[in-house]
Amino acid sequence: MRNEMKVLLATLALGPVLVWGPRVLEKLAGLDAFRIAKVEVSGVQYVTQDAVIQQLGLGQFASIWGDCDAWAERLAEHPLILEAEVRRRLPNRLRVTVRERRPVAFAATPTLEPLDAQGFRLPIDPSRTSLDLPVISTSRMPPADAAVFPAEVRMLASELNYLTGLDEEFVQRVSTLRYAPDGTVVVGLLQPEVDFVLPSRIPIDRLREGWAALQHAIDFDPGHAPEVVDLRFAGQVVVRRTK
Question: Which domain holds residue 191?
């Protein structure tokens, strides 16, 4: 009985191919049963499901046998979508999985706008989403219609993303990032209010040495926290007050 069922299923599957040959998908796409009735969207936080469906650009008679790769490429053109995957769900649904661009900081345009680790401007509606992000301080601003921030801003965004992977708890205290005149990175913290002066791509051990030195200075002289922790010099941690 089981073998007979396999033969029957194979016949049903091969039937359209035998009749229509290489035009089988074209013929299937024209059947009403395969017109897209629903699009299921997952992985979204900042972009709305309606925006995803609109970006797909499906026509009234779109079939699930359309080009899934082309749809995914169309979705990736949205400024909030990094990549997307589109799959068919027979008989008449699409499943869309989205990977969004994640905001890492604010930068001036001149108003503050969120950007991702690659420096792309992210059109996130502040009335829908509350963002608590560091501010990248720089004099370079993008043109009004530019999709990305200038190189200096992109480099600082990348640096912040690196620090997040290194020590997320440290980055949660970061309020500002900027470049010092010598090209080192100045990371301004809150609680305690102190500037960490860092070489680019600092190792985790050096960052922890700086944090330990800061804690020691606070414990040694309570109420008089230092204002700068300088990690530019190999083998040394310089903790100082500027006032």
Answer: 105-240
Is residue 199 a contact partner of residue 236, using CB atoms and an 8 Å limit? Answer: no
Please tell me the predicted confidence (pLDDT) of residue 61: 83
Alpha-carbon gap, residue 7 to 225, rounded angstroms: 80
Same domain, yes or no: 156 and 177: yes
Are 60 and 142 in a shared domain? Answer: no
Long-range contacts of the stretch 135-143 (C-beta < 8 A, 24+): 135/105, 135/106, 135/107, 135/175, 135/176, 135/177, 136/105, 136/106, 136/107, 136/160, 136/176, 136/177, 136/178, 137/176, 137/177, 137/178, 138/107, 138/108, 138/178, 138/179, 141/108, 141/109, 141/110, 142/109
Q: Are 115 and 227 part of one and the same domain?
A: yes
Q: What is the pLDDT of residue 60?
A: 82
Q: Are residues 39 and 119 in the same domain?
A: no
Other beta carbons less than 10 A from residue 85's beta carbon: 16
Query: Do 159 and 67 share a structural domain?
Result: no
**Which among 199, 200, 191 has a CA at the least distance from the CA of 170?**
191
| Mean pLDDT of the 34-46 span | 92
- 17 inside domain: no
Give the residue-averaged pLDDT of 234-238: 90
The overall pTM is greater than 0.70: yes
Mean pLDDT for all residues in the chain: 86
Last residue in a domain, options 61, 83, 100: 100
Quick: pLDDT tens for 76-133: 999 999 999 999 998 899 999 999 999 999 999 888 999 999 999 999 977 778 899 9
